[in-house]
Amino acid sequence: MELRTNRAKQKLANGGIVTIVSGITHADDIDNVGPIGFDGIWLEGEHGSSDAVDMGNLTRACDLWGMTSVARLNVNEQGLIYRMLDRGAQSIVVPHVNNAAEARNVVEGGKFPPLGKRGMFTSRQGLGVDNYFDQANDQTMLIVLIEDIVAWENLDEIIAVDGIDVFFVAPSDFAASMGHMGDLQHPDVVEKIEDALTRILAAGRNAGALSTTENVAHYVELGVRFFMTGVGPWIGSGFKQYNANAEAAKK
Q1: ω into 114 cis (within 30 of 0)
Q2: What is the set of domains in the chain, with CATH numbers?
Q3: Which terminal residue of the chain, N or C, has fewer Cβ atoms less than 10 Å from its own Cβ?
């Protein structure tokens, strides 16, 4: 067998736009959205139910459809990082990375030697792959969340760390850390987030953003190519249109 290609990582390397979808929590639902063509599924292990015990079935469902399994953890611990990789995740998201040392910890937990210190164990992705340890680093995608004002202050040292694939600027905690809880459109918040994205891109690194149908074009114009979006707003807007069509036909 050959090691499965990390679709999101490959597409990003080729300059494509990568869309990762959140809000899907069951393997059957991953199967149901598989034909749509998402690049990956965001498996929520910080604020949601996805844990190591669930990860085998969730990542297998992603594999069936060639989608990248993106597991967000709740803490920046090396053992937790590589355990999720061992369970089959192709990509790891680590929250609240606020300095270079914390970014290096992600790389050390997520990459085998000589790049990191990941424990020498064959991931589910490596079953049947003879040279798995020689290839795994190339297919493992590491994402850090820039979601505190202190991370913005230390951004230059964070983005200088090798081995991180995407520096994702997360708006909600970012706003809260600036004293503007819930006000993502506050001018100071918008300015700092766009400055962070611009600096990441100017350094030749990949920037990530939370996007909606309304703002994704703006971020693409800035140069962002990696996006996470939730299915909730799509379901909501689709239902509203459905209901409106039904009510209009009744008149």
Answers
A1: yes
A2: 7-250 (3.20.20.60)
A3: C
